[in-house]
Amino acid sequence: MKKIVIAFLSGALLMVGGQALADPLSNFGKKVDAEYSIVVNGKMLEAKTVAVDGVTFTPNRALSDAIGYDVAFKDKVVYYTKREEAPELSIDSTEPVTESRQWSAEDIRASIELTESRARFADKSLKYAIEKGDEVEITKWEAYIEKNNAELALWLERKAAQQ
Asked: Is this prediction's pTM over 0.70?
């Protein structure tokens, strides 16, 4: 669970960091496609992330606080600095989490919600890649969707086992 959440959030941080360099008014007036909850180590944050035209925008301050980083904004650049007391985060696997442990009903519910949210984002991204005719992106998103579906099946199995 921890690796899954950390991997998703780290990806979101990297995506948002790159967006900080883009034209700040480029999304002005655009429709928000979706709003997603953010879960860090099984705890749902009050802040939400939004998707606009297939790009996810995550609140830098809320997310960095949750994962133990300080965030600063200077000269149109977002700086992340790991806090001294922050735990070491390891993202060393792209495989679904399979370690044996007892999962709380809340952990499972939040993980299913997160995995379903990622599935919706991946579906939109795949459709966008298909519209562009970008074969590399299509292949990437198809593989991601397959992995995400396997992960969702794992969480649904855990939910069924608890009932």
From this structure: no
